[in-house]
Design a protein that fits this description.
The protein has 569 residues and is α/β, with parallel strands linked by helices. It has three domains: 185 residues, Rossmann fold (3-Layer(aba) Sandwich); 75 residues, Methionyl-trna Synthetase, domain 2, CATH 2.170.220.10; 152 residues, Isoleucyl-tRNA Synthetase, Domain 1, CATH 1.10.730. The protein is 47% helix and 14% strand. The protein is built from 19 helices and 16 strands. The strands form five sheets. It has a five-stranded parallel beta sheet, sandwiched between helices. A four-stranded antiparallel beta sheet has the order 5-4-9-10. The longest helix has 30 residues. The two termini are 49 Å apart. The chain binds one RNA strand of 76 nucleotides through helix 2, helix 6, strand 10, helix 7 and helix 9.
Length: 569
RNA sequence: GGGCCUGUAGCUCAAUGGUCAGAGCAGGGCGCUCAUAACGCCUUGGUUGGGGGUUCGAGUCCCUCCGGGCCUACCA
């Protein structure tokens, strides 16, 4: 049994995430974590909220709350929703934790000692009215190229030209609207990523089995133009990990904090330390290669927008520290999920957000659809029609109805216990041969994190049960040969347990309901299908479950379609 | 502008350069009656975006054109 460290990109604290965010990192990471646990591996599954940065400060100000309070509240909200989706984190941390503060400062210090930090003095836009420096995109004005009056300081949304805030005509603060802006000198720390370019390139080159999406984005940043650039890792903000601290190898950084993208990935480690503090566990054996982590397999999950930071910046931090930290082994990245012909939009309330999704349907419905349509090779699209037909067909008709027909048939003919007697024949052998092949295929796909294909294979495994029932037709056999019907029904009821075990990574609640109905807590993986189909013995009592998955009606679908078209309350 | 990804059946997607390009859904037909009007079997449906090239052989490799998407370093 191996040890697997799994991290999901950490969601930003500012608001509730939509389904596209969920399917891009947390959900597939959970699928993989659940699968590996089911196979008996030791798993550490880490996620957290990313709490620093300008948007958090502004959201808190808008809510009229101190930023620390705002983050604490939003963390609880996100944690509750994550539980609702059954995301099985071993720890859901906070990047604002004391652990992350200490570790972030530690890494910065180590990098400086290795000569990988340099100080840069530059001029940035300062808003006198807001009393703060503003990131480029928090400045708006008229585009000098096309005249668009709401061009952002970094880029014009209308003509897509890249801009510099000083180019804008009549620049104003997005926050206050104030035009009292000036360029002020400010000093920042830069991470010398360029010095590690060759090392990083060699490392990326060695990852021949990574998704093309991952490596192509990394290569683009490594080799485009002048190559990998040094990156500012501090900001003029108050909310964050202080850049000036006791023992810091620099001075004059008072009032500045580390850039969120510097401290956010470090939180993967810090969150494991938080876990250790809470449980008494040993975090070092997951992260320090000198303390047992050299036999850990580390897999990261993220949307494509996160790839540069995970392939370059964070590895630069890890490698640059010259300390024995565990480096990622595999980066599974995802494209975007679009919503009904356009993008999900937080600001315009377009699309389904995580809290809303759970209000209208149980988690399993969303988990199944999202995972079976995961945007692995290209951007994917959510439509209500597709969601309705997929869920109704796959979950209600193929799996749910299988459980229903088997349990109800047994109850009416034999009672609510596995009937005794009879022997199986070639038909059962045929089924087992097919299951054997398909389960092994399913395992391979899950190990390779081929999410869509694994879902398709799982569905085929469900279908095999219906095919078998149709061919064996115990309702016919029962009339002439009840013993044989008993053996057939016994096998089919055992199949329900096997389906629960195989399906649990995708639909954990339904799987639990199936196991409960079968009166068993035996979650043993079907390594040998013959043995797996004999786990529940003759005479074993079961209960006939309620409908596992209700169907989505046309009227509901139409209502939801209208409700989520835009303008969130 | 540059780079990357993508275009395959009505829809969503598969296919190490190698049988007749396959699945699911939708459509059509038949069967079954245990089941959530569910299930099973059969079946219709394709100039693989257009054009050119390499090859014994191209959905796959090369060139070009057209469409869609993403990234382009101070949102995270």
């Amino acid at each position: 049994m191996a040890r697997h460290l799994i991290t999901s990109a950490i969601p930003y604290i500012n608001g509730i995430k939509h389904l596209g965010n969920l399917v891009g990192s947390q959900l597939p990471a959970d699928l993989y974590a659940r699968y590996l646990r089911a196979r008996g591996h030791e798993v550490m599954f880490i996620c957290a909220t990313d709490e620093h940065g300008t948007p958090a400060e502004l959201a808190a100000a808008k809510a009229g709350k101190p930023v620390a309070d705002y983050c604490a509240e939003m963390h609880e909200v996100q944690a509750r929703i994550a539980r609702g989706f059954r995301l099985s984190f071993d720890h859901f941390g906070r990047s604002s934790s004391a652990e992350n503060r200490a570790l972030t400062q530690h890494f910065a210090k180590r990098l400086a000692e290795e000569g990988l930090i340099r100080e840069v003095t530059e001029k940035q836009m300062y808003s006198v009215a807001d009393g703060r420096f503003l990131p480029d995109r928090y400045i708006e004005g008229t585009c000098p190229n096309c005249g668009y009056d709401s061009a952002r300081g970094d880029q014009c949304d209308n003509c897509t030209k890249q801009l510099d805030p000083v180019d804008l005509i009549e620049p104003r603060s997005v926050i206050s609207g104030s035009t009292d802006l000036e360029m002020r000198e400010t000093k920042h720390l830069f991470l010398c990523q360029s010095a590690m370019k060759d090392k990083l390139a060699a490392w990326i080159d060695s990852k021949t089995d990574w998704p093309v999406l991952t490596t192509s984005i990394a290569r683009k940043w490594l080799f485009d133009g002048d190559g990998l650039q040094d990156r500012g890792i501090t900001r003029d903000l108050s909310w964050g990990v202080p850049a000036q601290f006791d023992g810091a190898p620099w001075a004059g950084m008072d009032g500045k904090v580390f850039y969120v993208w510097f401290d956010a990935p470090i939180e993967y480690i810090a969150a494991t330390q938080e876990w250790a503090a809470a449980t008494g566990g040993d975090w070092a054996r997951w992260w320090r290669t000198d303390k047992g982590a050299d036999d850990v397999t580390y897999t990261q999950f993220m949307g494509k927008d996160n790839v540069p930071f995970h392939t370059l910046s964070f590895p630069a931090t890890i490698l640059g520290s010259a300390e024995p930290w565990k480096l990622v082994d595999y980066i599974k990245s995802f494209n975007y999920l679009n919503y009904d012909g356009g993008q999900f939009s937080t600001s315009r309330g377009r699309g389904v957000f995580m809290d809303q999704a759970l209000e209208i349907l149980p988690a399993d419905y969303w988990r199944w659809w999202l995972l079976s349509h995961a945007p692995e090779n290209s951007d994917a699209e959510f439509t209500w029609e597709n969601f309705q037909t997929s869920v109704n067909k796959d979950l209600a008709d193929v799996l749910g109805n299988f459980v229903s027909r088997v349990t109800k048939f047994c109850r009416s003919k034999f009672g609510e216990a596995l009937p005794a007697g009879g022997v199986t024949g070639p038909r059962e052998a045929e089924l087992m041969a097919e299951l054997e092949t398909r389960i092994r295929t399913y395992e391979g796909l899950m190990e390779a994190m081929e999410v869509r294909k694994a879902a398709a294979e799982l569905r085929a495994i469900w279908v095999a049960g219906n095919e078998y029932l149709q061919a064996a037709a115990p309702w016919s056999t029962f009339k002439t040969d009840p013993e044989t019907a008993a053996a057939q029904v016994r096998l089919a009821l055992n199949l329900v347990r096997v389906y629960a075990v195989l399906s649990a990574p995708f639909i954990p609640d339904a799987a639990a309901a199936m196991l409960a109905a079968m009166g068993t807590e035996d979650r043993s993986w079907p390594e040998d299908i013959g043995a797996a189909l004999a786990v529940l013995p003759e005479g074993h009592a079961f209960t006939t479950p309620d409908v596992l998955f209700r169907k989505i009606a046309d009227e509901e679908r139409e209502e939801w379609q209208r409700r989520f078209a835009g303008r969130r309350d």
